[in-house]
Amino acid sequence: MTFDIDFLLQIAGLALGLLYLWWEYHANSRMWIVGAVMPMVSMWLYFRKGLYADFAINIYYLIMALYGYIAWTFGFARKNKPPLPVRHARPAVAIASIGALLAVWALLYAWLEYLTDSNVPVADAFTTAGSIVGTWMLARKYIEQWFYWIAVDIVCVGLYVYKQIPFYAALYAVYVVVAVFGYFKWIKLARENRPA
């Protein structure tokens, strides 16, 4: 029997991803602790499979895990105020996030197309750009972050099937379903947190 590190990394990533998703669904700040560990598991796997943008974004995930934990737990510049509530993004924030998605997608596509041997530059760039914007919106507790995750997760399912990473494809299929339910859960949480 041979030792298959890729298989073990997929299983570990699957388990951590499900735990992360459970805590994200419930808007629990412990998700950021798992969010710091999970990228370390995924980086090697993505690099070996030629998913260079997915590999690179895990550095961002590590940084955002620290930022998200602090923002959710202690808040930034929120003296004598509770931590951030779950809320809707203002229209200006929503429009800016779409612009950021398109700009980052274009930049990542150019990098993958012209400077790497990636054979999936469009999809890899999209999932990475969407994840960058979605993670920032998650750290700010914007309900609309779920729209980014639904789109990213759907593309990831196909991408990981194509790249023969079946456990991650299954994980992202679960992510799609939970993201839909998460959107409605967060709307409910926002209503509960609204001042009377």
Tell me what the structure shows.
- This protein is mostly helical.
- The protein has one domain.
- Helices cover 77% and strands 0% of the residues.
- It is built from seven helices and no strands.
- 37% of the residues are buried.
- The mean pLDDT is 89.
Could you give a short description of this structure?
This protein is mostly helical.
Fraction in beta strands: under 5%
* Sheet of most strands: none
Low-confidence stretches: none
* Number of structural domains: 1
Number of DSSP E strands: 0
Q: Name the structural class.
A: mainly alpha
Please tally the helical runs, counting DSSP H or I stretches of 4 or more residues. 7
Shape by Cα distribution: globular
Cα distance spanning the termini: 62 Å
Order of helices and strands: HHHHHHH
Question: Roughly what is the average pLDDT, rounded to an integer?
Answer: 89
Give the radius of gyration.
17 Å
Helix coverage percent of residues?
A: over 70%
Keywords:
single chain, 196 residues, mainly alpha, 7 helices, 0% strand
